[in-house]
Each structure stands twice: as structure tokens, then as C-alpha cells.
């Protein structure tokens, strides 16, 4: 048999757990699965299959649990998790968040939360004079401790002297690992610039440890330039000098807030992705849009699926499919450039229109006749 006649090696195959959960989460995850299957079938360079997990507020209301007994062991068998959003009007948010999303992030030690933001070609930032390319950031959020460590409690419930504490927890181990991850991320980007966000003027314990560990880790990365900003001043810089920012590292709460601002400055929360990574790769990582379940638009078919498409591209890159990842993101930008965008970006397209347009663009650019 001549070498050219030899069978092509089998494409790598990935098993993805899908957890659409609530509200528009179900709509955007369905759209992303359609696009990922089209990409896999068209490129032929990787195979992908999805196992659906019906973990949602509906399940909780029926069974009293978001995650059934043994559920996390099942989840762990997959290469990655594609998540929608959790939250329902008739379940308190702290129950839904802690029982599903945080239960996964914390158990699987997904300590690095990565949130890229940019102005897509064909979309508009609300900032005057901010064009595609002027705003291109990666926010690295500490995802395992800090203000969301779950430390604290309530005493004397119902009494006038009722007390509640919410203790932010910073460990040397936790800060060191996220700083190292953030420096590595900054090193991989063109500007090699890391802004360390802090609030050590007012918070004189945890945040001072944060600053000290950042300075120690910086010595291992002489090729990365750093600057330090108080979180309040950072909001002004994001609005006034977006081009001066590249990679940002911040605590769990601070980065949570800054990344919503970042998403709005890039045009809409409907395009912003997030990856919850276990950089040790001992556990599957989880990919999701930043947005929530959006009660106000659920069932209307107008949710922007772009954030979930972008997070799907991030998932492919994490799995090692860099070429497919870059192609998917480029295709999504091409569709935006054609003006096929949902109402949050000023368009009239529905979720299904954007999804179909992305699939058509994939086939037209990479289909067999090409
Ligand atoms: N990761 C998560 O699962 C997550 C994140 C945030 C909020 N939540 C939950 O979601 C519920 C609603 O929260 P919220 O209203 O604060 O935030 P949200 O992100 O759901 O909605 C905020 C606003 O942005 C709009 N929006 C969000 N995503 C959009 C999209 N893809 N396309 C177009 N418009 C979009 C919504 O219509 C709404 O007006 C709550 O229960 C909350 O706890 C979950």
C-alpha cells in the first residue's frame, strides 16, 4: 500500500458533558451544540459527543437536589463540561448558585476563571472611539476562595441583633497558584502586561497577602511587565484607557464585577465567555457564557448565542484543538460583520438565525468543495 493510500488516523474524539440548566442557558447550549457538531462534521479533524445532564432548578424543585448522589463522579468521566446558566425566579439565587455551579467549580478545583473580552468585528463598543482591536483583554479571576470561599454564618436569626458574617479567605497556596497562572497567561499575549488589581489600602490583611505574593511570583516572570491598581481606579481605567490594558488578575468578587463591566464595554454581556479551569487537568474544566438565565428574555428566542459559541471555542483550545478553535471564533466574527446579530447588539436576528448563519459560514468556508 502506498503511503498516500494509507487510511487517515482516526480523529481525536471528545466526550462533553452538557448542563444547560435554566432559562436561556438551555437555548444557548442547544445552539452551541449545533455549531460544534457542524464544525466537527465539516472539518473532520475531531469528533465530539455530548451527554446531557438534566441538572437544573426544575430538577431541584422535583427532587430537592440539583446534583443527584454520585453525579459528580459521572461528570468527572468527561473531557470537559459545557454549562448554560443556573437561576430561577422561585429559587433563592444563593441556593441555585452554590448547589450547582459552585459545587462543580469547587469540587473540581477549577481555580482559574478566564474571561477574554474584545470588541468583535462588526460590533460596536458603547465607548466613543473604541474600535475592534482597541479593547482586547483577558481577565483572570481567582475562582476558589476569596470573597466566595463560603466562610461565615448567621446568628440570632430574626432578632433585632441578628448578625451575619461573610469572611473573605486568602491562602498563600490559593494566591500563589492564581498569580502563576495569570503571569503565564500574560506571557502568552502580545503585550506581556499584567495588571494586578487589589484593594490593599482598605483591606489590610487578605489583600496585603495578595500583593505580597504577586510581587514574589513576579520575580519568576522577568519578561512580564506588571502594574498594580486599586479596583475602584481600575473601573475608570477600563472606561477611559481601554488600550492600556492587556491581562488582569483580580479576586473572585472583584473580577466578577470587572468582567461584567468589560462585557458591557465590549458591546454586550451576550458575547462574553468564561472558562473555569483546573490547570492541573486532574478534573474536567467547565465552559460557560458569563451571563445568567435572563428571566426577562427566556423563551423568546432572542438570546445572543455568541458568548456560548466563544466559550465553545475556548473549550476546543483547552482540549488541544487550536485550529478548530481559531476557525470557530473567526466564523462568529464574520457573521457579526455581516450584521447577523441579536437585539442586544442592535440587530434583529433571533438565536436560531445567528446559529444557522454560523453553521452556513462554517460549511461555506471549510466544506468539502473548498
Ligand atoms: N453563571 C451563572 O449561572 C449565572 C451568572 C449570572 C447570573 N445567574 C443567575 O441568572 C439569574 C438572572 O440574573 P441577572 O438578571 O442578574 O443576570 P443575567 O445575565 O441573566 O441578565 C442580565 C441582563 O442581560 C441580558 N442578557 C443576559 N444574557 C443575554 C444574552 N445571551 N443575550 C441577550 N441578552 C442577555 C438579560 O436579558 C438581562 O436584561 C439569577 O438567578 C442569577 O443568579 C447565573
UniProtKB/TrEMBL annotation:
- Which residues belong to the signal peptide in this entry? none
One example of the protein's molecular function in GO is:
NAD binding
What's the family? Answer: Belongs to the isocitrate and isopropylmalate dehydrogenases family.
* NCBIfam families for the chain: TTC
UniProt entry keywords in alphabetical sequence: Manganese, Metal-binding, NAD, Oxidoreductase
Q: Which cofactors does the annotated protein need, by name?
A: Mn(2+); Mg(2+)
Isopropylmalate dehydrogenase-like domain location, by residue? Answer: 15-358
Put simply, this protein is called Tartrate dehydrogenase/decarboxylase ttuC
Q: Which PANTHER family match?
A: D-MALATE DEHYDROGENASE [DECARBOXYLATING]
Q: Which InterPro entries match?
A: ICDH/IPMDH, IsoPropMal-DH-like_dom, TTC_DH
Gene3D superfamilies assigned: Isopropylmalate Dehydrogenase
Question: A Pfam family for this UniProt protein?
Answer: Iso_dh
